[in-house]
Inverse folding.
């Protein structure tokens, strides 16, 4: 296990253990149909993955039988297997194999004959009958004809992980969900109740308004609809003023900015409304309504909704929108909102295909560009009339993407949020629809609403929601299936993928069974080792490399964490009439954030600029908060409740034992408050921090400099900006303790465990 101070900067060294939570223990039964168990048992799903797919089917068969393979494109083979990039490809392919295995010739499954080159197999013989691969295929066919009754144990490398204990998990979850530290009562309840107490604690945190703020940030990271917030009017400027005459605000009208924000954030506000009210999350694509606040209601001329406070931007109600000419919008959750349609535009030649691609990506976790990754011979395409419909090189993708593109019929190809239900569609494209279903004529005027229902019913929708929550709260993309079985690390990489895939499937199943309540996924992720992992044996580092690994806090998350921990914001001092947070307004892009337009990907590891901002933040906040905290009565202090400025480590060359004890106790307190570390007073980390305090104190006392810069003094309230009473002000550092404690605060605020979570 990782130990010592060097490990502390690599992976959390907290001396806290734990066992796997029930949600992870459930991984043991993933893919099985019975509760029976056996030490030597292998589930059919696992057998297929490990003995058939990895050794040969994912390479030999996939060369021809994936959607873009020659067997499918040229020979129109009915046996089509999905590549590893397809979400849920193991289950999808296993289902396909089960159906194909039923087709027999002279009493033997077609699945066993064609690989031997029989039945006019276009690829000839790809397996030898005496080979281990063929024997594995025979075994699989036999298994597919019987009911699976196997339950497998938890992977040893996952089960051996050290996890955050319930109290530490609560702290991390509280910062992640509500951007605050747990109250003493919350911590006491979880400390006493253990794992069982985490559920109600997390449920309570998900009622905090900041939880919805965080969810909106997570979904905007891929929707990027916040681009409409640019210059305070981008969303309104995109709107058709014939359909929506109320978009014409005067530039000086203060309501213009609120109205623009309401239109720009409509998809995200709908998400927040659905989650807050425990509605099925499928409504993000199939809701037959939108939500409006007082400002968007005015833009849409919605008059049948009454607001308790017509100035409250956070009050939302369900509404149905009609354009000024009286055309009813066919609501389909997010995908029918002007913010979505204007962010993901189309053209007269693209014909909604780009939108359809985004729908697959955002709501079905499917990258349609990976359906066909083989090079295309342009000469064969240009010589074909209407190649997107007739060229086999093109149809592999277009037969997937054109039908949902056609479901967007009626939405203008130049004025993107303008809807005309009488508009004609392009008959030379594949017919509007989704998967194997065709858009019925009765739905031609509301195709996007029909599409939303189809998306919500697709099994990939649940997996997509799990993937999005997982990445949002861990900072990691889901693991890709290891492609090269010849690599020496393949087995370990496969173990990691199997464990994560099992967790995703279990969570998606619970989400579906729970009426698509997104909070089920959030709770599962926060209780999982992917959020709670602390450390692992180095021999298991491949399997566990993304488990519990702390993620660099986004500028938004760090901006909320600072006041949650310190009680003050990182803001420009002296400018109290124009308060703004550095990380929210000055440095969001420099600290690795996005603007949803020109910068759309967050940094996941710090560069030089990010590191420099972190150094400035730790220095300035240590300066601002230290003397200010000491101006308060001891019982009211947030950071230094156990010491006074008169307590110094030495006097006349002699150690002052009582003062040293108090200093170390306060250092222990700061480690818990700032870094979430519960350490004994004699812990080496406490000793290191004390040594920093002592070395700084020696250096200052030897210099004789008692000066304290104006910004670092305790002259005014760092929350309100008001001058403090003369009797409590701290304007110098006669005992050298203020700046010694500032050094400690700088050290902690620049620590990995503060900047990462």
């Amino acid at each position: 296990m990782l130990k010592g101070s060097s490990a502390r900067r690599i992976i959390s060294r907290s001396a806290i253990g734990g066992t796997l939570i029930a949600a992870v223990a459930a991984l043991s039964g993933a893919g099985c149909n019975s509760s029976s168990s056996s030490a030597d048992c292998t589930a059919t799903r696992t057998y297929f993955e490990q003995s058939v797919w990895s050794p040969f089917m994912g390479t030999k068969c996939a060369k021809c039988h994936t959607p873009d393979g020659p067997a499918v494109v040229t020979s129109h083979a009915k046996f089509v297997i999905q590549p590893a990039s397809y979400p849920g490809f193991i289950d999808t392919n296993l289902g396909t194999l089960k159906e194909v295995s039923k087709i027999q010739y002279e009493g033997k499954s077609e699945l066993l004959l064609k690989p031997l080159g029989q039945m006019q197999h276009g690829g000839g013989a790809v397996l030898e009958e005496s080979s281990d691969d063929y024997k594995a295929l025979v075994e699989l066919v036999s298994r597919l004809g019987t009911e699976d009754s196997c339950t497998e144990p938890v992977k040893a490398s996952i089960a051996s992980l050290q996890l955050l204990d319930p109290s530490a998990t609560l702290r991390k979850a509280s910062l992640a969900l509500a951007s605050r530290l747990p109250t003493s009562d919350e911590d006491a309840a979880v400390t006493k109740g253990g794992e069982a107490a985490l559920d109600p604690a997390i449920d309570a945190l998900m009622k905090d308004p900041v939880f919805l703020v965080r969810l909106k940030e997570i979904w905007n990271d891929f929707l990027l609809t916040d681009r409409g917030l640019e210059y305070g009017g981008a969303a309104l400027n995109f709107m058709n003023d014939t359909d929506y005459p109320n978009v014409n605000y005067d530039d000086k009208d203060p309501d213009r900015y609120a109205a623009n924000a309401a239109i720009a954030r409509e998809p995200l506000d709908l998400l927040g409304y659905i989650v807050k009210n425990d509605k099925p999350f499928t409504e993000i694509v199939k809701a037959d309504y939108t939500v409006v606040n007082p400002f968007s209601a005015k833009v849409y001329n919605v008059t049948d909704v009454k607001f308790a406070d017509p100035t409250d931007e956070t009050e939302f109600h369900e509404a149905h929108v009609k354009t000024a000419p009286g055309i009813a919008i066919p609501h389909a959750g997010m995908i029918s909102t002007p913010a979505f349609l204007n962010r993901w535009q189309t053209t007269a030649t693209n014909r909604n295909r780009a939108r359809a691609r985004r729908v697959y990506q955002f709501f079905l976790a499917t990258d349609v560009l990976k359906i066909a990754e083989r090079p295309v011979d342009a000469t064969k395409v240009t010589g074909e009339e209407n190649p997107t419909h007739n060229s086999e090189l093109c149809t592999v993708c277009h037969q997937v993407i054109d039908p949902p593109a056609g479901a967007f019929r009626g939405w203008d190809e130049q004025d993107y949020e303008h809807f005309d239900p009488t508009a004609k569609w392009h008959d030379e494209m594949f017919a509007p629809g989704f998967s194997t279903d065709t858009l019925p004529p009765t739905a031609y005027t509301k195709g996007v609403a029909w599409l939303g229902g189809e998306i919500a019913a697709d099994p990939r929708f649940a997996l997509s929601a799990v993937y999005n929550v997982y990445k949002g709260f861990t900072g990691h993309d889901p693991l890709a299936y290891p492609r090269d079985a010849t690599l020496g690390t393949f087995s370990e990489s496969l173990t990691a993928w199997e464990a994560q895939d099992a967790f995703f499937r279990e969570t998606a199943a619970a989400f579906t069974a729970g009426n698509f309540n997104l909070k089920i996924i959030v709770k599962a992720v926060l209780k999982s080792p992917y959020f709670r992992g602390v450390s692992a044996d180095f021999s298991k580092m491949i399997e566990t490399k993304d488990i519990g690994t702390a993620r660099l806090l986004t500028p938004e998350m760090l901006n909320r964490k600072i006041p949650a921990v310190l009680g003050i914001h990182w803001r420009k001092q002296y400018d109290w009439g124009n308060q703004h947070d550095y990380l929210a307004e000055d440095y969001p892009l420099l600290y690795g954030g996005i603007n949803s337009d020109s910068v759309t990907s967050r940094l996941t590891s710090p560069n030089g600029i990010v590191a420099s901002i972190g150094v400035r933040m730790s220095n300035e906040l240590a300066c601002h908060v230290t003397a200010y905290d000491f101006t308060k009565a001891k019982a009211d202090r947030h950071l230094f409740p156990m010491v006074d400025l008169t307590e110094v480590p030495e006097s006349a060359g002699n150690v002052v034992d009582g003062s040293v004890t108090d200093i170390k106790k306060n250092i222990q307190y700061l480690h818990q408050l700032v870094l979430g570390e519960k350490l004994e007073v004699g812990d080496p980390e406490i000793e290191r921090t004390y040594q920093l305090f002592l070395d700084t104190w020696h250096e200052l006392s030897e210099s004789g400099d008692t000066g304290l810069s104006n910004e670092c003094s305790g002259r005014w309230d760092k929350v309100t900006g008001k001058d403090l009473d003369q009797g409590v002000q701290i304007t110098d550092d006669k005992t050298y303790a203020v700046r010694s404690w500032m050094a400690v605060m700088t050290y902690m605020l620049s620590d990995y465990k503060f900047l990462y979570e």
Q: What stands out?
A: Strands lie at 104-105, 108-109, 162-163, 290-292, 317-319, 433-434, 437-438, 533-535, 650-651, 654-655. Residues 226-319 form one domain. The chain has five domains: 4-28+156-205+459-544, 31-144, 226-319, 346-457, 555-755. The chain is about 45% helix and 5% strand.
